[in-house]
Design brief:
Shape: globular
CATH class: Alpha Beta
CATH superfamily: Pyruvate-ferredoxin oxidoreductase, PFOR, domain III
Radius of gyration: 16 Å
CATH architecture: 3-Layer(aba) Sandwich
Helix content: 25-40%
CATH topology: Pyruvate-ferredoxin Oxidoreductase, domain 3
Number of helices: 5
Largest sheet: 4 strands, mixed
Number of domains: 1
Order of helices and strands: EEEHEEHHHHE
Strand content: 15-25%
Strand order of the largest sheet: 3-4-5-6
Length: 153
């Protein structure tokens, strides 16, 4: 929607049997030559296993955003920006656990505004079947909830 280049590489191998699953997303103004990264500008962490695995991979000066639900050992780095978003609780408060991902997206976009909200909505219109378009206002509300509730850790 914003003339960006995007690479999306999920990792679902043995992780699906109880470990962490992860995905690397690259959004760039230039062509993405490789979807493989050794360090990240931003990590969005949703469980302790992922925090243990990926905290050290955030570049100095980068961002780590995490949902504290289930996190027993908080991030400790001092050279990155650390934020929390209680996505699971906020989705529950909204009465729909399915909007969790959109709450997390809102938190991310508040801190790293790489995509305009109007283009998030337009992207939903293009990617969702027409029968699901009635859910777009709820999804955009969830994005706003994430933006309004992300906090510095």
């Amino acid at each position: 929607m914003q003339n960006k280049e995007v690479s999306w590489m999920p990792s679902y191998g043995p992780e699906m049997r109880g470990g962490t699953a992860n995905v690397t997303v690259i959004v760039s103004d230039e062509r993405v030559c490789s979807p493989i990264l050794n360090a990240f500008d931003t990590a969005v962490i949703l469980n302790q296993q992922s925090l243990d695995k990926f905290e050290d991979k955030v570049k100095p000066g980068g961002y780590l955003i995490y949902d504290p639900n289930g996190i027993t050992k908080k991030p400790t780095r001092k050279d990155i920006h650390i934020y929390t978003i209680e996505g699971a609780q906020l989705a529950s408060d909204m009465g729909n656990s399915k909007v969790f991902n959109m709450i997390i997206l809102g938190a991310f976009l508040k801190l790293r505004p790489i995509i305009d909200n109007k283009n998030v909505e337009e992207g939903l219109r293009h990617s969702l079947p027409e029968r699901a378009h009635k859910l777009i206002p709820l999804n955009m509300q969830a994005v706003q909830v994430g933006m309004d509730n992300v906090k510095e850790a």
